[in-house]
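At this stage, I put together a protein sequence along with its fold in token form, as given directly below:
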Amino acid sequence: MSARAYLAASQFLVLPIVARELSVEDFALMALAMVIVVLALTISDAGMGRSLIRSTDADQVEWSSVFWTITAGGAGLTLITCALAPLFAWFFEAPKLTSLLIALSVVPLMQAIGAAPNAEIETRENYAGIARVQIISTTCGLVTAVALALLGAGVWALVAQQIVLAGTRLIGTLMLSRFRPLFTFSTEKLWPHLIFARDTLGMSLLMVGRQQLTIMGISKFLGATPLGYYSMSERFGRLPQFGVAGPMTSVVFVRMSKAQDNLEHIAAIYLAAMRILALILIPSMAVGAVAAGPVFTLFLGPNWDPVTAVFALSIGGLVLEAVGFFALQSLLRVIARTDLLLRLVLETVALRLVLLACTLPLGLEAVAASITIWGLLIVPRGWQIASRVFPLRLRDCVMTLVPSMVVGAFMSVVWVLLAKLPAFEGVWPQAIAGVLLAAAAPGVCWLVDRSAMKDAIATFRSDQVPAPKTPKRKVGAELKA
């Protein structure tokens, strides 16, 4: 999380420069190119890295078999991306997309090569090493983007950032990992991982497709300029997921994997994760929503003013997804209840598509608001589905979020009152007040919810898994039912 927080902070230093050097259309073009790249990234690993973490008795032959399979898949995806590039560019009437996609096609291959080594690092829980790799690779990518933007490279500055980021991360991962593949292959040992990949790949594609369909819909029906504003809003709005929820989910999955026979403890880990995520994200993002106007004007310039409304209307749903939905997937994956997870994902995608279809004719702000509506509906639905297997009550889930929501509302009101004072007139004072209040909000939440937060942190610090209250044989019967 510290490494991802570094990325979030660096965005505030880098994006003001890049946003002033690049056009809104450049960001729109990059967002379209990343549609194909993100889909390829999702397929390249296919969840087999997660599968290796779950297999506590896997040997070197098994790990090597998975490595060669993922690497071969990544190479195939690089070729497919290059082949699809002209067709994608033709459909969206953007000829530049062809060359951008061909250049970015190496990114899925680099991720595929590093998937198994990264899984080995996570199995050892060497999160400090992972953080160092992320900080170095992030810095290299950002420096590349700023340098090329100042040199007038346009959208290629963003392309080079992604390639340098992936390449540096791959080098760091290979150096940090103790895994070295053997020149061997076992279909028998690979088979369980292929089954896991089969069950998870479809769900991952559905979830990624849900996000990318929004980008394609805005581009096709609203145009490049609205897509550029939406893309910039996403760069800030997705930071809670990428910067906090992503690393937390990795820790959650490893911890849950060690408690597969104890449903009560797995549910406790989920609630603890949600409480920690809520403290970090909800109060600060609530302040960010109300103070978005002066903050974006100050950092990005007046040309990006429409981003304010898009961010403020969508951030609620993005934060709810980060807090309540990401770890919920680990909850169901760790006990191989992919049937329930598939049902949940299908419902989320269907609801998102319905809301998108209804709001696209109304404009970009309506599309942004539909994201928050989606989050308010789908997260409680996820709790309901998970409660069929785990001792997870709706009331406990809601109460986990209440302290953070109350503090977020309070700090937002404080900013609104400050903004009305004569001393805080102007963009600079209001933006600074918003940043300071957003930074202080998690600390205030800690004071309000200190006892429960200490218990939540203790859940992660403890390596001891309590004995299950339900006998193992009975748990199996419940899962079968």
